[in-house]
Amino acid sequence: MRFTSTSLLLTDLQGVLLDSLAEGVVMQDEHDKVLACNKAAPSILGLTRNQLLGLDSMDPRWRAINRDCTPYRWDQHPSVVAFKTGQP
């Protein structure tokens, strides 16, 4: 495969790297909507890729819970906190 630009090469390599992870990676916008995910994310979350795209963190299909098995409040959800603070 021949690449015509460095940005195309980097984009392709990023996709390969993300899809090689066993951990699920979900990319969300500033409104908490899922824009993209790696191959592991849907199976970990029990959804198809198409079901996951467009969801926000509070969608009941997401089923994100705290360590004590209680649902996250929106302002405590890790993706919302990470976006607000800039910290992982």
What would you note in describing this structure?
With 88 residues, the protein is mainly α. It has four helices and two strands; from the N terminus they run αββααα. The chain has helices at residues 6-20, 40-45, 49-52, 78-85; strands at residues 26-28, 34-37. Strands 1-2 form a two-stranded antiparallel ribbon. Strand 1 (26-28) and strand 2 (34-37) form a beta hairpin. The radius of gyration is 15 Å and the shape is globular.
Give a brief description:
The chain contains four helices and two strands. The protein has 88 residues and is mainly alpha-helical.
Key terms for this structure?
single chain, 4 helices, mainly alpha, two-stranded antiparallel ribbon, about 90 residues
Total strands: the figure is: 2
- Could you tell me the strand content as a percent range? 5-15%
Radius of gyration: 15 Å
- Could you report the average pLDDT, rounded to the nearest whole number? 84
N-C termini distance:
34 Å
Quaternary state, please? Answer: single chain
Structural class computed from helices and strand pairing = mainly alpha
Residue share in helices?
A: 25-40%
What is the string of SSEs from the N terminus onward?
HEEHHH
> Biggest β-sheet, characterized?
2 strands, antiparallel
Number of continuous helical runs:
4
Lateral arrangement of strands in the main beta sheet: 1-2
Low-confidence stretches: none
What coarse outline follows from CA principal-axis ratios?
Answer: globular
